[in-house]
Amino acid sequence: MSDREGHSGGPPPTDDDLSLPKATVAKMISEFIHLISSEANEICEQESKKTIAPEHIISALKRLGFDSFTTEVEDVLKDHKQQQKEREKKVSKFEQSGLTEEELLAKQEELFAASRAKFQTTQQ
After folding, report:
1. Half-sphere CA count of 4, side-chain side, radius 13 A
2. By CB distance 3.0 to 4.6 Å, which of 4, 11, 20, 53 could disulfide with 24?
3. Lowest-confidence segment of 36-40, 55-59, 70-74, 88-92 by average pLDDT
């Protein structure tokens, strides 16, 4: 299926009706991502870093003249960081149990022993 289906047999499409084929849009998106990531990698290397950080992406956008994108990218980054903080605040099962590590290990050993005994009785 093409993006232009529905126009066959009818009047020629107007400028508002024209759209790029999906493959072309996908290629353009891929090229844009490659351009930004290459520039971010260059910035990263200049800073003697081995991992591209969000700040490198923002700097790459600015360097390449996409300043209008940076505000939205920074907002998404803030939201992401907030979500990460909330995840870290979630209490683990270990903390929820109220037991010490030694008590939990003893309980685990009891469960293993019970499981072994059950397995051995079914094998006989």
Report:
1. 15
2. 20
3. 88-92
CA distance 75 to 78: 5
- Asked if residues 58 and 70 have their Cβ atoms less than 8 Å apart, the reply is yes
- B/e letters for 25-51, b = 16+ CB within 10 Å, e = fewer, are eeeeeeeeeeebeebbeebbeeeeeee
Residue type, 68: S
Q: Rounded to the nearest 5°, which phi and psi values hold at 12?
A: -60, 145
Residue type, 90: K
Encoding tokens for residue 54?
A: 């969000």
**Token pair of 118 as six digits:** 């059950």
- Please tell me the pTM assigned to this model: 0.55
Residues with Cβ within 8 Å of residue 73, at least 6 apart in sequence: 54, 57, 58, 61
Give the tokens for residue 17: 């009706």
